Every structure is written in structure tokens, then in C-alpha cells.
Amino acid sequence: RSVYDGEEHGRFMEKLEARIRNHDREIEKMCNFHYQGFVDSITELLKVRGEAQKLKNQVTDTNRKLQNEGKELIIAMEELKQCRLQQRNISATVDKLTLCLPVLEMYSKLREQMKSKRHYPALKTLEHLEHTYLPQVSHYRFCKIMVDNIPKLREEIKEVSMSDLKDFLESIRKHSDKIGETAMKQAQQQRNLDNIVSQHPRISGGKKSKKEVCASSDLEVKNTSPMSEQDSGILDVEDEDEDEEVPGAQDLVDFSPVYRCLHIYSVLGARETFENYYRKQRRKQARLVLQPPSNMHETLDGYRKYFNQIVGFFVVEDHILHTTQGLVNRAYIDELWEMALSKTIAALRTHSSYCSDPSLVLDLKNLIVLFADTLQGYGFPVNQLFDMLLEIQDQYSETLLKKWSGVFRNILDSDNYSPIPVTNEEVYKKIVGQFPFQDAELEKQPFPKKFPFSEFVPKVYNQIKEFIYACLKFSEDLHLSSTEVDDMIRKSTNLLLTRTLSNCLQNVIKRKNIGLTELVQIIINTTHLEKSCKFLEEFITNITNVLPETVHTTKLYGTTTFKDARHAAEEEIYTNLNQKIDQFLQLADYDWMAMEPGSKASDYLVDLIGFLRSTFAVFTHLPGDVDVHSTMSGKVAQTACMSACKHLSTSLMQLLLEAEVRQLTLGALQQFNLDVEECER
């Protein structure tokens, strides 16, 4: 800048030119000094260029050859590269398929199980699929679809299993009748077996009881896995050695749906929902079962069907109790049983009250006992049923009394009221076998001969024994003591004697058309029946094994019954005689104004005395035991005679004192006196 700004520009240029010329001279010197070396180097360089060209040509040629030779290798290497890539892809695909195939197989298996309705295994498969397999391949689209379907599949399994449960509930409702019938048959067989064992103690160790068999079966069931597809939890309650197999509840109903449904709901975490639903439905069914048909009382089959359904219901519940853990518990079953017991007893009280046939009441009692024994075998308390049977026993006694009232009426109406004639020893022994009668004098008499009593005596006696047998039948299997049975029989027999038989005898005695001969025969008959009461006492003692001396033993009132009947017959005799006397006296036709008396007693009075003479001859010629009948008939005859004479004298006096008789003559009085003297004579 100083050069350009100053005025020495020319000078500077001159100096610079001089400087350049100096440098050129130095360069030229240096070049001259090194020129030969430079020439040599150029020469060498030219040689190198030629060699380099040759080398280039060789390299180019070699390269061409290498390129030509390497094309196949490059192609092979490309193919190898592609193959290696495919191999890696295949390996990766195999690895992924190895993970996916089990998922698809499990899903296919799940669908197959769903299709074949094996829902519990399907649920287990679903669980494995969800927790084990799907997490490994969760990033695939099809797996996401499966994951989305799992809740739907679970719901579907729930619905289908619930549908199976509903079918099961419907099935057991239909089969309750048959299940109960078979259970009661089993109880009957067990009772028969117990009776045989009790009669032959030496074979008592041979067979298990029903509950023991049930208990052992329960243990077996609890030790088996509920996961088995065909498991139905069946209890085998039958003894395989028995000649005749009675099918159990499990043979009539397949319990597997309820087990499967229970397991499925347990796995799904909804066990409580299932339990509540099952119990609610069974309670509804229990109420339906406990509702008796309106015409149940008409036939025994009506009661049997009612009992079968109840037994069937509780056999199923007992089976469920012992083959599932917690689906039903003892408290739930006890609650159901309490309800069933109260409703059953109320229904039986109502319907049995309509029954008037003693044989039907007896059959009903046997059915109730079998019903009670069956349920007692399953562990249900049945004391209330036996208490109710004691109530039905009173009703049974009433129906028996009504029936025997008709029997006694028929016997008394068909009797001929004349001593039984016997023509040979066989007939004599037959009657003595029917009625306890011993008379040494009668035995000595030759045939033909007559018993003092008429046919109604042995018939009535035998019917009283039949009544006692009928009472005894009801007491069987009621678990009563001998004393209770004895007391029951004696009380019922007393009612038969004091009420039924007494009324029948009184009705016969009070009949309008009964004759004196029949009344006398009734007196004789009741005397013999009165004497037979001690034999009835012995008869009851023999069948109950309770001695009459035992404290609280009820005595038979037969003696009183027959005494009352005899007194009524005697009174009827006196009344009849007086009525006959009145009838004769109505024929009296005194002429109170007659001037002269007749030569003999009045005709009506002669006829009356003839009638009385023949009547008293009936008393004096009574057959049989002299000591008994002579005394008895003599007493009756004396009393009758006194009564007749007193009535006749009173009536004759009334004839004189009648208001219509205003005056009378001495002749009429003398005629009247003749009649009185005839009476005295």
C-alpha cells in the first residue's frame, strides 16, 4: 500500500524485475548442475512407462479372464446367498410354526370337545390355551382373535352346562317316582333280610347293611377324580351276591351332568352361583313333590306314588351330598327334611281321615312304616312319622269298630236263637274248638244233643279274636314295647265290647218283633260269653307276653257288657210279658150289670193263664248246665212271674175302678171273683 500510495512505484518495479532476474539465473545454474540426472530419470521413467503399459495390458487381460471365469462363481454365490436366506427364513418359520401349531391344535381340540359336549375337558383345554400357549404367540392376528373368543367360549360352556343341568333336574323330577320305588324295595329287602338274620343269628355276619355299603362307596367316590369325562359319581349300593339286583338311583339317572356343571362353575369361579341355583331349583321341586294329589286317599297306589316321589327326592339329595363336596350340606338337607316332614304329616292327617276301610288304613300304615324305614336308612329322623302313626292307630280302631259293628249285626240278625244241635263227635269238637266250653254232663249224653247256646256265641267269640288280631297287625313294626301293644289291644277290645257289641246286643233286644224265646236264649248266650272273658284275657296275654298282673295292665270290661245285655234282656222279658197281659186284658168284656155269675172263669183269663203257663215252661225246660241255667232261668222265671202277677192284679183292680163303671151288680162281682180265684189257683 505504501508502494502504491507512494511515488516510488517505478523504482519498486525495477527492483522487483532485478530480483526476478537473479532468481532465474540461480534456477538456471541449479538446472545445469542436475541436468544429467534429470535426463537419466526421464529415460528411466520412459522405460517404466513401457513396462507399466505391458503390466496394464497383462492385468487387463488377466482381469478379463478372471471376469469370464468368475461369472459362474458369482451366479453360484448368488444362488448360495439366496439359498442361505431361504434357509434362514424356513428355520425362522419352523420355529414360529412350532410355537403356533400347538395353539392351533389345542384350539382344534377345544372345538372338538365342545362339539362332543365334553365341556369340563374343554374348559381345561381353554385354560391351558389361555395361560400356556397363547402368550408365546400373542403378536399374531389369529391369536388375538382367539384371545377375543375365549370369554365367549367360556360363556358358551357355562350356558351349555347349565342347559345340561336343567335337563338333569327335569330328568330326576321325572324319575323320582321310580327312584323312590327302588329305594323302598331295597328297604323292604333289607327288612326281610334283618328278619331272617334275627331268626338265624348264626348267619348274621354275612352281609353289610345298606348304610355300611353306602359309606364304603362314598369313600371310593371321594377318592376318584372328578375330571374324568365319563365320571358320574355313581354309588353302588347293591350287594353283588344278591340273587336279584334292584337298580339304584344311579342306575336310573345319570348324575354326570351335575358333577360336570359343578366342576365347570368351580373352575370359572362361579361355584356359589351354581350352588344357589341348584338349591333354589330343588326347593321348588320339593314343594311340587310334597303337594299331594286331591284323590290320594282313594287308593293305596295314590299314597305309594306320593311316598315314592318324596323318597326319590331325598335319595337323590343324599346321593348328591355324599358324592359332591359342598354342593349341598347337611344343614340344607335337614331344612328340606323338616319342611317335607311337616307337609307330609299334614297331608297324611288330612287324607287318612277320609279313609273308612280298615284294610286300606292297615296297608297305609305298612306303607308309612316302609317309607319311614327307607328314609331312616338314609339318616333322616322319622320319629314324628311314628308319632303320627299312633294317631292313625286311633282312626284305625274306629274303622275297625265300624266294620265289626256290621259283622256283629249280621251275626245277630242271621242267628236262629236256638241251641246248636250236634249229631256227631266231629261237629261237637269243631264247636268246642271255636268256643271255650266244657260240660261233663253234656259230654256224657248220647248224640244227637244240643249246646245250650245258639250259633252267635262261637261266632261272636271268634270275631272278637279276629278283632284282636286286626289290632295286633297295626302294632307291628311300630317299635312299640310289649306293654304298649298290650295296652293298645286291650283298650281297643274294651271299646269293641262296651260300645260296638253292647249296642248291637241292645238293638237286638229292643227289636219290636223279638220273642220271649229269643230273649231267653240271649240271656243264656250272654252268660256264656261273660264266662269266656277270662279266656280272651289269656288270649291277649299269650300274643303280647304281658301278664295280666303287670302294673297298669288294662282289664277287659266284657263281663260288664254281657251283664248289662242280660239285664236288658230280662227287663225286655218283663216288659213283653206285661204287654201280652195288656193285650189279653183288652179282650175282657165284663157285664157289670149281670144278675147271675157264670159257671167258670172268663175265657180271656183262661187263655191268659194258658199263655203264661206255656211261657214259663220255656224257662223250666232250658237245656244245658243244670247248675247254671236252672238257677239262672229259675231266677228269671220267678222275677217274671212276680212281675206278671203284680201287673195282672194291678190291671184287674183298674178294671173295677174305671171311671166308666158307674154301678155293678153282685152277679158281676161274683164273676170277677171267679177270675181272681182262677188267678190265685
From TrEMBL:
Domain Exocyst complex subunit EXOC6/Sec15 C-terminal: 384-680
Keyword DNA damage in record: no
InterPro entries hit by this protein: EXOC6/Sec15, EXOC6/Sec15_C, EXOC6/Sec15_C_dom1, EXOC6_Sec15_N, EXOC6PINT-1/Sec15/Tip20_C_dom2
Residues in coiled coil: 13-83
Protein name: EXC6B protein
Similarity field: Belongs to the SEC15 family.
Organism lineage string: Eukaryota, Metazoa, Chordata, Craniata, Vertebrata
Keyword Transport: yes
Gene: Exoc6b
Domain Exocyst complex component EXOC6/Sec15 N-terminal: 15-184
Biological process, per Gene Ontology: Golgi to plasma membrane transport; intracellular protein transport; vesicle tethering involved in exocytosis
UniProt entry keywords in alphabetical sequence: Coiled coil, Exocytosis, Transport
GO cellular component: exocyst; plasma membrane
